Amino acid sequence: QVQLVESGGGAVQPGGSLRLSCAASGRIFSIYAMGWYRQAPGKQRELVATFTSGGTTNYPDSVKGRFTISRDNAKNTAYLQMNSLKPEDTAVYYCCAEIQGDYGAIPYEYWGQGTQVTVSS
Length: 121
Description:
4-stranded antiparallel sheet, elongated, mainly beta
């Protein structure tokens, strides 16, 4: 009943920028944390950024200072602004969200389909 749709991926040169969007739709009572992960071929999926309902953000050292996560609660949408992109940022980027469907219901973790980001010369 809940769907996350990512957009904004593409191919850029090193040093370029992209902004990813993740829109949540469906049966939503409350959205807790939202975040972004990425997975490159042959690599494990890794955390890129998280944003809790309380406004706390978290980034790994690999992207800190270059990536910024934001959230528009009115639109149930999260964004990932990526600046100073490097070839090692190349991966499929996935959006995730912890969503409660109804009052008193158990929240579940949902994932988007992923969007490709390619950084090369």
